[in-house]
Amino acid sequence: DQQVKQNSPSLSVQEGRISILNCDYTNSMFDYFLWYKKYPAEGPTFLISISSIKDKNEDGRFTVFLNKSAKHLSLHIVPSQPGDSAVYFCAARETPAGNEKLTFGTGTRLTIIP
Amino acid sequence: EPEVTQTPSHQVTQMGQEVILRCVPISNHLYFYWYRQILGQKVEFLVSFYNNEISEKSEIFDDQFSVERPDGSNFTLKIRSTKLEDSAMYFCASSENTHYEQYFGPGTRLTVT
């Protein structure tokens, strides 16, 4: 049951360039989306989120884009830095409020090449 | 910066034994969660807890699992009789309310032998 899919298990990007991580979902009840970053032996660290009423949210070097009609979201990191090397998880939560569980994708391992 | 803490970082136990995993959520948060990640798989929701009761649980969270907030700071996950397939990283998370992001602890690696 893969309601949240990250089809690229890995991605390598040159330092200073843009990293684009993609996520697709199938559940039309999802209304809130989050990106988490995870280093080995650590818990997921919250990066950025977006509500379904928006199509873009920006925080510093991180921007998340949401295309509801395509059920697709992406995370852009500009410029990419070596410390960005980690596994990135897309997660989603569905309505109604009170249904708090997050459904995670399988993750994309991002490697920034110096 | 406030953070979620978990103890122990690694727990080894024999099949059939009981284990208790401990978490201290962020102090002003009201919603608490347990997730797990089996090696090589995705992070899976187990249970959410609010106002001293379970608000949602997954089908993974069967009668062998229980959660408790024994005092004002700790949040625990108990597995009554561990199985080999319970071996995983267990993450605790907390949030201020359901409309806000969940913050995760560093995890407890549970190894059942």
Measured between the Cα atoms of the first and last residue of chain B, the distance is 37 Å
From N to C, what is the helix and strand string of chain B? EEEEEEEEEEE
Oligomer: heterodimer
SSE pattern of chain A: EEEEEEEEEEE
Major sheet size, sense and barrel closure of chain B: 7 strands, mixed
Percent of residues in helices of chain A comes to: under 10%
Number of E strands of chain B = 11
Biggest chain pair contact, residues each? A-B, 23 and 26 residues
Please tell me the overall pLDDT of chain B.
93
The secondary-structure class of chain A comes to mainly beta
Mean pLDDT of chain A: 93
Give the number of DSSP strands of chain A. 11
Give me the secondary-structure category of chain B: mainly beta
Low-pLDDT regions of chain A:
none
Beta percentage of chain A is over 45%
Key phrases:
heterodimer, A: 114 residues, mainly beta, six-stranded mixed beta sheet, five-stranded antiparallel beta sheet, 11 strands, B: 113 residues, four-stranded antiparallel beta sheet
Describe this structure in words.
In chain A, 0% of the residues lie in helices and 55% in strands. Chain A has 114 residues and is mostly beta strands. In chain A, strands 2, 4, 5, 9, 10 and 11 form a six-stranded mixed sheet that branches. Chain A has a five-stranded antiparallel sheet with strand order 1-3-8-7-6, with no helix packed on it. In chain A, β7 and β8 form a beta hairpin. Chain A is globular. The mean pLDDT of chain A is 93. With 113 residues, chain B is mainly beta. Chain B has strands at residues 5-7, 10-13, 19-24, 31-37, 43-50, 53-57, 65-68, 75-79, 88-95, 103-104, 108-112.
Topology:
The complex is a heterodimer of chains A (114) and B (113).
Chain A: E1 4-5, E2 10-14, E3 19-25, E4 30-38, E5 45-51, E6 56-59, E7 62-67, E8 72-77, E9 86-94, E10 103-104, E11 108-113
Parallel strand pairs in A: 2-11
Antiparallel strand pairs in A: 1-3, 3-8, 4-5, 4-9, 6-7, 7-8, 9-10, 9-11
Chain B: E1 5-7, E2 10-13, E3 19-24, E4 31-37, E5 43-50, E6 53-57, E7 65-68, E8 75-79, E9 88-95, E10 103-104, E11 108-112
Parallel strand pairs in B: 2-11
Antiparallel strand pairs in B: 1-3, 3-8, 4-5, 4-9, 5-6, 7-8, 9-10, 9-11
